[in-house]
Design goal:
It is a single chain. The chain is of the alpha+beta class. Helix content is 46%, strand content 12%. The chain has helices at residues 13-25, 31-49, 52-64, 78-83, 86-97, 165-177, 183-191, 222-239, 243-260, 264-273, 284-293, 296-306, and strands at residues 140-144, 149-158, 198-204, 209-218, 312-318. Strands 1-5-2-4-3 form a five-stranded mixed sheet, with helices on both faces. A hairpin with a 4-residue loop joins strand 3 (198-204) and strand 4 (209-218). It is globular and about 55 Å long.
């Protein structure tokens, strides 16, 4: 959960403080507001479920982490939303919102302001896992609908944002599917003309992570696309990337991130999404330095750890059955 607030003048800084104080420390929910919000969320749920390009993410996470209650549909199901009471929301606010909140400030704000005045409770950090749990028994998932164009995500379990391998994965993700010059876009788009675009990303959470490769493909070409992605990942698990490829990706990432950090808004967003949540002392320069420290050996080691048959997960949505493809 993150809440962005911007003001144009530092004289209005108190507005930010008052708003955060109201959001995080004051339990102001009324039954009327609560009932209206439940209806809005039910509408949003129907919208997400009717759009496979959105729902495929939750389908994949449910497959990848079947025992994690945070992933089987992030905003819930119709039944779970109906069962939530106002007291449940107030209890969540008391336990989570006012306890684990962190504030990120960027801009010309009063340097001597005591942020303790907001009234946050003591923050407790969680220990991050150092190893990946490979104990899944199911590796494919189908969401059947009437679309002959299939949405698919093929991914691997990885580690949370605070783990050192996260920075290796930034390089790996970029080289595999990080733009039109990436390996999979060159093969699947320009060489084989099987897809329009392939997108790679890291889904990172406080206790786990996943490297995903997402694309849309016709039912007839689905198996070939799956095979190409798998073959590339398995090849990388043995040989990794070249020094030239890694340096090229580093240069691209460092320069693109430097470009992104030219506004106060992007600076705050960067510190929200790209930094270790358990280390409040980290800043964007630590991220850039960690990217710069990635080595040929560390990338090869990370590829070998993650890219194995027992760690491949495939979620597909479309007009197909299990007989139409295999992982």
């Amino acid at each position: 959960i993150h809440i962005d607030i911007s003001v144009a003048d530092k004289e209005d800084f108190q507005v930010i403080i008052d708003t955060y104080k109201s959001i995080f420390t004051e339990n102001i929910f009324s039954q009327e507001i609560f009932d209206k919000e439940k209806k809005v969320i039910q509408t949003e749920l129907e919208t997400r479920n009717s759009n496979p390009s959105i729902s495929i993410f939750e389908q994949y996470l449910t497959l990848c982490y079947p025992n994690n209650s945070n992933f089987p549909n992030i905003i819930g199901t119709k039944e779970s939303i109906d069962s939530i009471t106002l007291d449940d929301v107030k209890a969540f606010h008391e336990k989570v919102m006012s306890t684990d909140a962190k504030i990120i400030l960027c801009g010309d704000f009063p340097k001597d302001y005591d942020l303790g005045d907001i009234g946050f409770k003591k923050i407790t950090n969680v220990n991050l896992p150092e190893v990946i749990n490979f104990s899944n028994s199911k590796f494919t998932s189908i969401n059947k609908n009437e679309n002959n164009l299939c949405q698919m995500i093929l991914g691997v379990k990885s580690l949370p944002i605070g783990n050192p391998k996260y920075y290796d994965l930034e390089i790996i993700t970029d080289l595999i599917a990080g733009g039109r010059s990436s390996e999979l876009n060159k093969i699947l788009r320009y060489k084989k003309a099987l897809v329009y675009f392939v997108n790679g990303d890291q889904l990172v959470f406080s206790d786990t992570g996943s490297l995903i490769i997402k694309t849309a493909v016709s039912k007839n070409n689905l198996q070939e696309v799956v095979n190409v992605i798998k073959d590339l990942l398995l090849e990388l698990s043995v040989k990794g990337f070249s020094e030239e490829e890694i340096n090229k990706s580093k240069n691209k990432l460092l320069k693109s991130k430097s470009m992104q950090l030219q506004t106060v808004k992007s600076w705050a967003d960067f510190h929200t999404y790209k930094l270790n949540p358990t280390n409040s002392e980290q800043n964007c320069f630590d991220y850039l330095n960690n990217i710069n420290r990635v080595t040929l050996e560390s990338v090869k080691e990370t590829c070998a750890v993650l890219f194995k048959e027992s760690n491949f997960f495939l979620a597909v949505a479309g007009n197909l059955s299990e007989a139409d493809f295999m992982l």
